[in-house]
Amino acid sequence: MSDKHHEEAHTGPIKNPKQLLITVLLAFILPVILIIGLVTFVGSAPKTGAGVGMQELAQAQRLQKVGSVEIRDANRPLRGGEDVYKGQCAACHATGVSGAPKFGAAGDWGPRLAQGFDALVHSALKGKGAMAPQGGGDFNDLEIARGVAFMANAGGANFPEPQPAAQEGDAAAK
Fold first, then answer.
1. Residue spans per domain, the chain
2. Concatenated DSSP letters for 49-60?
3. 39: left (phi over 0), alpha (psi -120 to 50) or beta
4. Who's near 104: CB < 8 A, 6+ residues apart?
5. At the fourth CATH level, which superfamily is domain 81-154?
6. pLDDT in tens, 25-63
7. CB 81, CB 139: distance < 8 Å
8. Cα separation values, 43 from 7, 36, 57, 155, Å
9. Any idea where the Cytochrome c domain is (predicted)?
């Protein structure tokens, strides 16, 4: 009797292959299935954040090119200062938005005119205060300089309207 009792004390709870299979399923496969189910449940929740509603747009924005090339007509006639002012500058300078000197207000333009024409053009092209950089927009740098001269002259300056540099062929013909 002691041999039988002694033998039962050293055996485990698994007595046959069916019990072994059930134990393996419960110990290893069931937790894996539960983990996969939890990951699926958490991953399927509605996502919040920018661009979530439009997946294609969000992907296109992430994959967009770093730079771009814009082809313009190099032979188009240059626009004058008044056209540049009306097209790009009047939105802020006509009303004095965000501290912009008002068009024609000598008091607003006085301290700025003391800096000189080149400093005014540099500020227009690179940006200053609340004014964003104007270079690279619809107008080239020379046209922006013409717009600066137009506004500054309306504010009391006497700057000549900038002209394009003479081509070598034009200079030789004269």
1. 81-154
2. STTSS-HHHHHH
3. alpha
4. 154, 155
5. Cytochrome c-like domain (1.10.760.10)
6. 888 888 999 999 999 988 877 666 665 667 777 777 778
7. no
8. 51, 10, 21, 62
9. 76-155
